[in-house]
Amino acid sequence: MFSIRTQWNLTPNRLSDLVSEKRRQSDALIDLTESNPTRCGFTYPRDIILHALADASSLIYNPDPRGLLTARQAIVEYNATRGISLRPEQIVLTTSTSEAYSFLFKLLCDTGDEVLVPRPSYPLFDYLGQVNDITLRQYHLVYDGEWHIDFESLESAYSDRVRAIVLVHPNNPTGSSIQQHEFDKVCSFASKHQCALIIDEVFESYTLDPGKNHLPPLIADASVLSFTLNGISKILGLPQIKLSWIIVQGRASQNEEALNRLDIIADTFLSVSTPAQVALPALLNQLHCLHDQIHERIRNNYRLLDELFASSRVTPLRAESGWYAILQLPQFHSDEDWALALLQQENIFVYPGHFFDMQQRSCLVFSLLPPPEVLADALARLRLLVERS
């Protein structure tokens, strides 16, 4: 009765079983996997948000496959603050980055075609590949004190069915950015093999270096067709309003063809709500209201790591941006066993690294969004657990 593409293994793993049991027992669970800013104690500018959503023009339905011009112009102006010159015609609105990926996979790939994605990375890619009937092939990020693209693995992952390369800048969960020399090399590779680039920049405004506010933008050579993704879920901390975008760049003829085809795909769904589009200029105008709170917290929480794990057997892996962090623990237990022990003994929930396809052993992944006092207490208890072990 059901499609093969949805034939997933739905059996809970040991960690999710234990989390469910703890919640049933009403244990005071400290959830360090929390990545939803609306549940992390930030002060939302309620009046600004509600006023923007209450604009009377939201009552008029005037659909445009690429999205309302006023919303796309606001995105042009936001990118101008980053030194990027765009035209509204290059932009297509979507409800989420996931939908943007889905649109692009439909645009670029036939059934069974392939897309190169980084490892480690967010597990969502697996599901997006399956529901769009494409095959994902992984290239590796390697760590030697900082993260780099392993170009040998990129070359070996390539086949003549590859249609696109995904770059996540910064990567989730490693927090690593792509260096300019790496990007130039990826562009040469994509141009040689006539692949498109999909550049995911949803965390680009959350640098962990106090001297930086944004990562340098990745702008491909004009010979390479590229699609850059972003949205207000992360840059405004508003995942509930559901608005993201695709920026199309490349040769003029490629741009026109890509956008004409995206028009049909987007027009088939017309999924972005009018109130979200109408509100976008006002929301982006107030970018600092919530963004700055989130940015300050993740920077403070990231600084905690060096303080808490100095002279410890726990090693924080270096990150540059984003709102996740990775700890490498002693390797006499697996990452899953460490996560289970932390949950069982301390009621602290973190992700094992293998959830993100990490090759490094005994790594735990957690969010930098929780309040500093909560994170500091939880990580101090993690250090004690390691020392007892």
**How helix-rich are the residues, as a percent range?**
40-55%
Mean pLDDT across every amino acid position: 95
CATH superfamily of the largest domain: Type I PLP-dependent aspartate aminotransferase-like (Major domain)
Q: What is the CATH level 1 assignment of the largest domain?
A: Alpha Beta
The total domain count is 2
Q: What strand line-up does the widest sheet have?
A: 2-9-8-7-6-3-4-5
Oligomerization state: single chain
Q: What is the makeup of the main sheet?
A: 8 strands, mixed
- How many β-strand runs? 14
Judged by helices, strands and strand pairing, the structural class is: alpha/beta
Q: Bin the strand percentage.
A: 15-25%
Write the CATH fold name of the largest domain: Aspartate Aminotransferase, domain 2
Unreliable residue stretches: none
